[in-house]
Amino acid sequence: MRVAGILLVEDDPSVRTALELALTRQGHSVTSYATGEEALDHIRARRPEIAILDVMLPGIDGVEVCRRIRKLDQLPVILLTARGDDLDVVVGLEAGADDYVVKPVEPRVLDARIRAILRRAESATSDRITFGDLVIDRGALKVTLASKEIHLTPTELRLLLELVRHPGQVLNRRYLLRVVWDHTHVADSRLVDACVQRVRAKIEPRPAEPVFIHTVRGFGYRFSPP
Amino acid sequence: MRVAGILLVEDDPSVRTALELALTRQGHSVTSYATGEEALDHIRARRPEIAILDVMLPGIDGVEVCRRIRKLDQLPVILLTARGDDLDVVVGLEAGADDYVVKPVEPRVLDARIRAILRRAESATSDRITFGDLVIDRGALKVTLASKEIHLTPTELRLLLELVRHPGQVLNRRYLLRVVWDHTHVADSRLVDACVQRVRAKIEPRPAEPVFIHTVRGFGYRFSPP
DNA sequence: GGACCGGGTCACAGTTTGATGACACAACCC
DNA sequence: GGGTTGTGTCATCAAACTGTGACCCGGTCC
What we know:
Chain A is α/β, with parallel strands linked by helices. Chain A is built from 8 helices and 12 strands. Chain A has a 5-stranded parallel sheet with strand order 2-1-3-4-5, with helices on both faces. In chain A, strands 6-7-8-9 form a 4-stranded antiparallel sheet, with no helix packed on it. Chain A has a 3-stranded antiparallel sheet with strand order 10-12-11. Chain A binds a DNA duplex through residues 153-156, 185, 189-191, 193-198, 200, 207-208, 215, 217-218.
């Protein structure tokens, strides 16, 4: 079961302990603070996976804490409020929050929302990813195209997985050489190119006009779904 | 302004048209269907950026549509329901939905939630800066002007990135030669000018009156948003 | 006005880059 | 051993890129 490090900020002690207890029961590990200042002070050290912030806080309010977290980090944030006023929801989400939950909240619901957000945040690391016809199973190390299994050699597979790990990002040859091969190789070689060619020959319907692995001249290669 | 291609599935015609109108007013482009089957049939062709699904649908219900979408794709999903029962929320979110909204929903709220989800979905994979119509994605090394992709050559791109790294600052030719080119070049040449020229030709609507890259006579060039 | 200066514009040839296919060699499996 | 597979290297080719220099133009300074 997925267990998250949760940063909880809530000034009302009874609500705080109740939530902490409920979330802990769901299997999460919770660190809680009564004020935004404390939370911000410790956020770097604790490296939580998600923050749950009460909006009404003494001192800096939750929305402002959210804004400051956003400046620091990609950390997912759920805002918690007693008010259900629409305007607040808009302001909160515009501040960069990922969700907005109105108190009192059923623990199972909060837990489901936490998981939904974390699932999205980590979908980049889940076992199986689908890009149109192409399915890459990182657990089973299998690649299928239009339900037909494709055989990739170990090096080809490592290369493809590395590209897929950063969808949409351009990865340069030096980086790929370092990560996919051992760094013992000369920086200047057509090795990466040759391997990309081989992968393309296997997964691209028309290797001459690649749909998945794109060449970015002068920089490297980019995997992006069609 | 961020504009999304939204796939809307809602069987009640009056709710559907109302939502479609409201979302269109917010600047989104909406395609709507009355049933999940239709939506699933067209999802590949339309390539929406986000799906909004009513839970109560004739035939396949919204939660099931959501599950099937998840199998296909990384597409973000918002479930829409008239029921506020906690159990439904949990089931929906477990099916892989990114958010769960209870009808009737204030259009601004729905819009804010859409934007929050899209922001997360895209911030996970890219690192982009926007200057009006001009979007520069430093991770994907892609430049778009009014949503149309612009092809820049390696040197042009390096030059633009360098200018953009210091918005509002004047960078002189010697500096640009050193950073963008290797320092092996003679300081006196039309090299930088020519390259700026080429970039302008591609990204400036009217290259003769540049909006992005300004010439500062006697000093160099300055990138500043319009 | 005329010289001068800094920058804009353009075409092109030489260079760079990546695609491609062949090949050699090592590892592995019968 | 003999075949098979995987992988690094190389030569070759076409396409893309880019530095250069000639020329132009508008301001500026005597």
